[in-house]
Design goal:
Layout (H helix, E strand, L loop, with lengths): L1 H24 L28 H33 L4 E4 L2 E4 L15 H9 L3 H16 L20 H10 L17 E4 L3 E4 L6 E4 L10 E11 L15 E6 L15 E5 L4 E3 L7 H4 L10 E7 L4 E6 L2 E2 L18 E6 L3 E6 L8 H5 L26 E2 L6 H5 L3 H4 L29 E2 L14 H11 L13 H15 L3
Antiparallel strand pairs: 1-2, 3-4, 4-14, 5-13, 6-10, 6-14, 7-8, 7-13, 8-9, 10-11, 11-12, 15-16
Protein name: LAMI_0E02652g1_1
Keywords: Endosome, Glycoprotein, Membrane, Protein transport, Signal-anchor, Transmembrane, Transmembrane helix, Transport, Vacuole
Subcellular location: Endosome membrane; Vacuole membrane
């Protein structure tokens, strides 16, 4: 009402002002009649002093609702046209559909691998074997581009990875939802995974890596996991130290990642090498500061990787202590990619155990603040309830008298047992046992029909005594004139003997 009356009021004043102004401009002044005295009157007459104009209120409401829907339709039409024709988004092809996740941006994290001149110079310093594997890794990424979606993109579209089904699976399984799955292209004896997170590398003198099945959910502020070097099979027997050519790398990456390369060597990956170096999108020879940034690893060490979702910061720990990176500019920050997967790789036989929160962390702060990937134990749904369990059939009759079954039986084999319709005939007179006992056909045993107590059995001695006592003419056939007391004694002896027969 106010929204309609306010413009109407000022519009009237504006029109009256215009009329007065036009008279002055034209040099005409309206005559003034003092005799005409203005008398104020109610706007709606005497009969409508305390009543509202219902028609005007309804018209105002309908007008505002119509304008709202009209503006909403115009907004969505403009948004669709802009996203359809004026921007090129990152498309994800899945099951024949294309989802536009946002405007085009430079999704690739800048690194030395993007500069062809720098790559050419550094590639010349590598051995032919290293050059071959580097080119193979880059070709793998070109043919299998990783799913790289910056955090600011794709907030309105459906999440293809962390969707409702994935979140429900994580809620049910807890931290056990994460497991490592070796690539199918690797030989069967390269990587073995036991109990989901116990990884055994059997390769020697060539690189291999395995990544988790699920990325970091990016729901909480911080996520943390730990890798323990459980066993080492180094060249020197009984030596827990690794040489410069023997490497175990722990890190994060996007998916897919070259399974024949260690993490940190290609785009969108970071790693802590067992030699003490930090790799970040770099396959070439490192500077001395980066090559010796962290302590060297040995058997029994626990390497932790933490990721802060809000700032995109990655930090590392070793044996429960957070490692400093001030000498190279601090931790990696701003690495805000939507899907980051834990990954571990090695080029020597070893065994690594990974902890996503199923056990206590060595890093105390992660335990106190619960930085695990999920809860320790998930909330699994209970099994379906059986309300009518006492009605379930336990033992059912094995006699089948369906027409389909009777058709498979020839009449020559049955003889006169069944009639033309396939029903069993009654037994002939004098036949002691029926071919289809009425007490068995159609019987179904349930929990309610079973006897409450098992049947009681009489001992053999009492049974034999009763049989002999109830035998006809037991006392008439005696020829030696023994007394009944002797007969009872003899019967007891026979019963005693029968127990051992």
């Amino acid at each position: 009402m106010f929204a309609v009356a306010w413009p109407y009021k000022y519009f009237t004043v504006f029109c009256l002002g215009g009329l007065v102004g036009s008279n002055f401009v034209c040099g005409q002044v309206l005559p003034r009649h003092e005799d005409n005295i203005y008398e104020s009157r109610p706007p709606y007459g005497d009969d409508f002093d305390n009543e509202f104009d219902v028609d005007l209120i309804l018209f105002s409401v309908l007008f505002m609702v119509s304008c709202y829907f009209l503006l909403t339709i115009i907004y969505f039409c403009i948004k669709y046209l802009v996203r359809r024709y004026l921007t090129t988004g990152i498309s994800l092809n899945g099951q024949g559909t294309t989802r536009i996740l946002g405007p085009a941006v430079n999704a690739r994290w800048p690194s030395a691998l993007d500069d062809e001149n720098v790559v050419r110079d550094k590639l010349a310093k590598m051995s032919p074997e290293e050059q071959f594997y580097y080119k193979q890794g880059e070709e793998f990424i070109r043919q299998n581009p990783p799913l790289v979606i910056p955090e600011a993109i794709g907030t309105d579209a459906e999440d293809p990875i962390i969707n409702e089904q994935t979140l429900q699976f994580i809620e049910e399984e807890g931290a056990h939802a994460w497991e490592f799955q070796p690539n199918a292209n690797l030989p069967n004896d390269t990587i073995l995974v036991e109990n989901r997170t116990e990884i055994t590398f059997l390769n020697y003198n060539y690189d291999a890596s395995v990544m988790a099945n699920l990325p970091i959910p990016r729901i909480n502020r911080i996520y943390y996991c730990e890798f323990k070097i459980f066993e080492l099979n180094t060249a020197g027997s009984g030596n827990n130290q690794l040489s410069d050519s023997e490497l175990i790398s722990f890190g994060l990456c996007t998916s897919p990642y070259p399974y024949f390369r260690l993490p940190g060597r290609h785009h969108h990956s970071i790693a802590y090498d067992s030699s003490g170096g930090r790799r970040f999108n770099d396959s070439f020879e490192q500077a001395p500061e980066l090559a010796s940034l962290f302590p060297r690893c040995e058997k029994g060490d626990v390497i932790g990787i933490g990721y802060r979702s809000n700032s995109g910061t990655v930090f590392f720990t070793r044996n429960g202590k957070k490692l400093k990176e001030k000498s190279v500019g601090g931790h990696i920050k701003g690495w805000k990619l939507k899907y980051l997967y834990p990954i571990v790789g090695a080029n020597l036989p070893c065994k690594v155990h990974v902890n996503f929160g199923t056990h206590g962390f060595v890093y105390i702060e992660a335990n106190v603040k619960k930085w695990g990937y999920a809860k320790l134990n998930g909330i699994k749904l209970p099994p379906p309830s059986y309300e009518d369990y006492d009605q379930d059939v336990l033992v059912e009759s094995n006699y089948e008298d369906d027409l389909s079954d009777n058709e498979s039986v020839s009449t020559s084999e049955v003889g006169n047992v069944v009639d033309r319709e396939g029903h069993l005939l009654p037994p002939p007179p004098g036949f002691e046992f029926s071919t289809s006992p009425s007490s068995v056909v159609g019987d179904e045993y349930t929990l309610n029909s079973l006897p409450a107590e098992p049947p009681s059995y009489i001992s053999d001695d009492h049974e034999s005594i009763e049989i002999q006592n109830s035998a006809p003419g037991a006392g008439d056939s005696r020829e030696d004139g023994k007394s009944s007391h002797d007969d009872n004694d003899e019967a007891k002896k026979n019963a005693f003997v029968n127990q051992f027969l």
